[in-house]
């Protein structure tokens, strides 16, 4: 059978109610916070750093004492972290040893189109018969670039320091592939950021937040009508809201605990969940000072820090936050809570403030230069609506009334032009543009909200609210995707193409 499915009939599932795990869940805050290993390059030459990653099946102990089959980059979930320098090319050879085709996208990377992980640019499983799967992709998209067994992804990374992430992006199957474990961090560093006195080393913590549910046998529950995707009996209707688990994982561990000194820490938070939004806060809040000081957004440092009492984060968004644990007495247990959660999803992880230590970090009033983008620079304004709709005779998701097709181009910005894109939505939809970074220009007809600052690549639309973003479409010519980053919405049609010309 073809592993590229007929559209929308495979990942389609359930109703958006939270899935319940079928085995006893561990008490929270018992597992130490793991930090994903930083991958060593296999070669560094004058102009590029080279890495190799094997995508393979593995068994992970996510819940203590429970064996969970996963799909992992290097067999781990999350995958290993890659660290690059801005402006220096990184080449990652991905080997596909999974039973299905894969596509790797570097989210937030300013990447040429042939390396961006277009949804039909499949890497077929090593050893699979050439036309077994590639033929289906080519049927959907004659322009698909099919590779056999492995491919080199080349990232020029002509961009500023930022926390990017890489994940699977196969047409119609991003949700189940990411849920099974295909996601990892890619940090870009540069001199501008290195020169700042920010917390670093063990005081810089990447936090990849996901939600999952587990079946009685320890496997991950992913509702689907495709038996190859762990189907849940009785679930046959197309999926509406997205897949929600009852276990919150940080860096792949359930409600972990991190011991921290009473000093400033930099928390680099990614919401890698398929569909869940969080609203993060600290319990107790610090006796003095802000709860969080935001220093960066999706695409890197802000111009100036911003204080927040809580931080909402939608799928694929990143917030770069500083927390001053020095404001707490030694011995305090500080819980990172989710104000949108109930029961098991109301807490995320815990910090245990264990000792005093000297802290010579501080947060400068000016963080980075950000090129201004002004309304007056825009040559074109485009409108897109994001709504539920009928797709292939079932409920799916659309952009301006259309479900995704690789062959339809909805916008052709001229290379180097500045454009304003106006979005409206029926529900929450975290909208992501490939290739570019953008600024939020307005929200609900008002100035951007408190969480809209800085250079972004994903913006959470709220029900009925119009959002304008402004972007310069520079870098590379070619076809790129934009889509909702609720992975189930994306798989069920809420994706489209633009082409820089
Ligand atoms: Cu994070 Cu088009 O993806
Ligand atoms: Cu992306
Ligand atoms: Cu959506």
Automatic annotation (TrEMBL):
Keyword Methyltransferase assigned: no
This protein's record includes keyword Transmembrane: no
The entry's keywords: Metal-binding, Oxidoreductase
GO molecular function annotations of the record: copper ion binding; oxidoreductase activity
One Pfam family hit: Cu-oxidase_2
Ranges where the Plastocyanin-like domain occurs: 61-119, 396-500
Enzyme class (EC, first level): oxidoreductase
Cross-referenced InterPro entries: Cu-oxidase-like_N, Cu-oxidase_C, Cu-oxidase_fam, Cu_oxidase_CS, Cu_oxidase_Cu_BS, Cupredoxin, TAT_signal
EC code: 1.16.3.4
Top-rank taxon: Bacteria
Catalytic activity: 4 Cu(+) + O2 + 4 H(+) = 4 Cu(2+) + 2 H2O
Subunit structure of this chain's protein: Monomer.
PANTHER family linked to this entry: BILIRUBIN OXIDASE (PTHR48267:SF1), CUPREDOXIN SUPERFAMILY PROTEIN (PTHR48267)
Family the entry assigns: Belongs to the multicopper oxidase family.
Designated name of the protein: Multicopper oxidase CueO
Organism of this sequence: Amycolatopsis albispora
High-level lineage: Bacteria, Bacillati, Actinomycetota, Actinomycetes, Pseudonocardiales
């Amino acid at each position: 059978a073809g592993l590229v499915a007929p559209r929308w009939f495979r990942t389609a599932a359930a109703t958006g109610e939270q899935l319940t795990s079928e085995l006893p869940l561990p008490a929270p805050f018992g597992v130490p916070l793991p930090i994903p290993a930083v991958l060593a390059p296999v070669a560094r030459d004058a102009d590029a750093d080279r890495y190799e990653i094997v995508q393979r099946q593995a068994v992970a102990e996510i819940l203590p004492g429970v064996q969970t089959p996963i799909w992992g980059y290097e067999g781990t979930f999350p995958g290993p972290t890659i660290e690059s320098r801005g402006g220096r090319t990184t080449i990652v050879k991905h080997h596909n040893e999974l039973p299905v085709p894969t596509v790797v996208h570097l989210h937030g990377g300013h990447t040429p189109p042939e390396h961006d992980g277009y949804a039909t640019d499949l890497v077929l499983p090593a050893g699979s018969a050439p036309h077994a799967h590639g033929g289906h992709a080519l049927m959907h998209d004659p322009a698909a670039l099919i590779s056999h067994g492995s491919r080199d992804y080349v990232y020029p990374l002509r961009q500023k320091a930022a926390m990017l992430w890489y994940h699977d992006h196969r047409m119609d199957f991003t949700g189940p592939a990411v849920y099974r474990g295909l996601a990892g961090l890619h940090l870009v560093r540069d001199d501008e950021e290195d020169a700042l006195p920010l917390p670093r080393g063990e005081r810089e913590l990447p936090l990849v937040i996901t939600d999952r549910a587990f079946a009685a046998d320890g496997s991950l529950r992913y509702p689907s009508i495709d038996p190859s995707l762990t189907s849940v009996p009785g679930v046959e209707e197309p999926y509406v809201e997205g897949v929600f688990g009852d276990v919150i994982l940080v860096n792949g561990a359930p409600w972990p605990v991190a011991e921290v000194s009473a000093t400033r820490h930099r928390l680099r938070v990614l919401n890698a969940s398929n569909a869940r939004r969080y609203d993060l806060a600290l319990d107790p809040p610090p006796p003095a000072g802000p709860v969080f000081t935001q220093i960066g957004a999706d695409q890197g440092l802000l111009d100036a820090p911003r204080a927040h009492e809580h931080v909402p984060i939608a799928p694929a968004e990143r917030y770069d936050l500083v927390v001053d644990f020095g404001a707490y007495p030694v011995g305090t247990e500080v819980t990172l809570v989710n104000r949108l959660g109930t029961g098991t999803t109301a807490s995320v992880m815990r910090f245990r403030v264990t000792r005093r230590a000297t802290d010579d970090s501080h947060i400068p009033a000016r963080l980075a230069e950000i090129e201004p983008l002004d309304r007056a620079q825009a040559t074109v304004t485009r409108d897109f609506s994001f709504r539920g709709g009928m797709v292939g005779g079932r409920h799916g998701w659309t952009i301006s009334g259309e479900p995704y097709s690789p062959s339809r181009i909805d916008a052709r910005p001229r290379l180097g032009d500045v454009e304003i894109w106006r979005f409206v939505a029926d529900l929450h939809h975290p909208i992501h543009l490939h290739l570019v970074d953008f600024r939020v220009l307005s929200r609900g007809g008002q100035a951007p909200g408190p969480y809209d600052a800085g250079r972004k690549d994903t913006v959470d639309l709220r029900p009925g609210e119009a959002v304008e973003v402004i972007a310069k479409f520079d870098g590379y010519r070619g076809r790129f995707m934009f889509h909702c980053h609720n992975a189930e919405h994306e798989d069920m049609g809420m994706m489209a193409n633009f082409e820089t010309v």
